[in-house]
Write a structure and sequence with these properties.
It is a single chain. The strands form 2 sheets. This protein has a 5-stranded parallel β-sheet with strand order 3-2-4-1-5, sandwiched between helices. It has a 5-stranded mixed β-sheet with strand order 6-7-10-8-9. The chain is 32% helix and 20% strand. The chain is α/β, with parallel strands linked by helices. The protein folds into 2 domains: 122 residues, Tetrapyrrole methylase, N-terminal domain (Cobalt-precorrin-4 Transmethylase, domain 1), CATH 3.40.1010.10; 95 residues, Tetrapyrrole methylase, C-terminal domain (Methyltransferase, Cobalt-precorrin-4 Transmethylase, Domain 2, 2-Layer Sandwich), CATH 3.30.950.
Length: 228
């Protein structure tokens, strides 16, 4: 009998935000896959280990997920990751693939999930708290009210166009383009808040676009609203 691949969202950073279902899957799985060169460097693994210390006794293997826009390189890495996971599934082992936030929101896991499913193996997704929900809660603000539209945008691509859309904008993954993103936000005149490393060590909160540092880290999430 083939094992099952389970994509588990560990949430944005605070281990207390992991779901009961996620913890149960971690407790019952046979091994874990983490998308890093070493489990000690995996943010998702560190979060999961705090919520479920028992995973320290489980076998862990890593799959390489390069940070690149080269589609050929990405496709090859997804295939390689799927092949490695399928080696375990063929032995009847249930594999949990750890991913930050929710596995369905800009997560590399989904590409591997699709390949493994197409290859005929059982697959499952366990939702995690999305980073934008956790950030809004940390800020004490709503994400959307009444009939407002909510846009989730990868801010490394076309942020100016995104800010022109009606409603509330959530900007994710600004990364190395934070300077450009910050300028666009200042020029927009919108109400802007940002949480860096939400729920993790080193968390910082900024409540004006002008205060956002250009060297803010990868785990920075911005919420932009039109002024009343």
């Amino acid at each position: 009998m083939k094992g099952t691949l389970i994509g588990v969202g560990v949430g944005p950073g605070d281990p207390e935000l992991m779901t009961l279902k996620a913890v149960k899957r971690l407790e019952s799985c046979d091994c874990l896959a983490v998308p890093d060169a070493d489990k000690g460097e995996s943010t998702a693994y560190k979060i999961a280990a705090q919520a479920c210390p028992g995973i320290g006794e489980k076998p862990v293997f890593t799959v390489r997920m390069p940070m690149t826009h080269d589609l050929a390189v990405l496709k090859a890495s997804h295939r390689t990751a799927a092949d490695r996971i399928e080696e375990e599934l063929e032995q009847g082992k249930n594999v949990v693939f750890l991913t930050l936030g929710d596995p369905t929101v800009y997560a590399t896991y989904l590409y591997v999930h699709q390949i493994v499913a197409e290859d005929g193996y059982p697959v499952e997704i366990v939702s995690g708290v999305p980073s934008f929900c956790a950030a809004a809660a940390r800020l004490g603000i709503s994400l959307a009210e009444r009939s407002q539209m909510l846009h989730i945008v990868p801010s490394s691509h076309g942020v100016e166009q995104a800010l022109a859309m009606p409603g509330v904008k959530v900007l994710m993954k600004a990364g190395s383009k934070m300077g450009q993103v910050r300028k666009a936000l200042v020029d927009s005149g919108m109400e802007v808040c940002m949480v860096e490393n939400c729920g993790m060590p080193g968390e910082r909160v900024f409540r004006r676009a002008e205060d956002i540092p250009e060297d803010a880290g990868y785990f920075s999430l911005i919420i932009a609203k039109d002024k009343p």
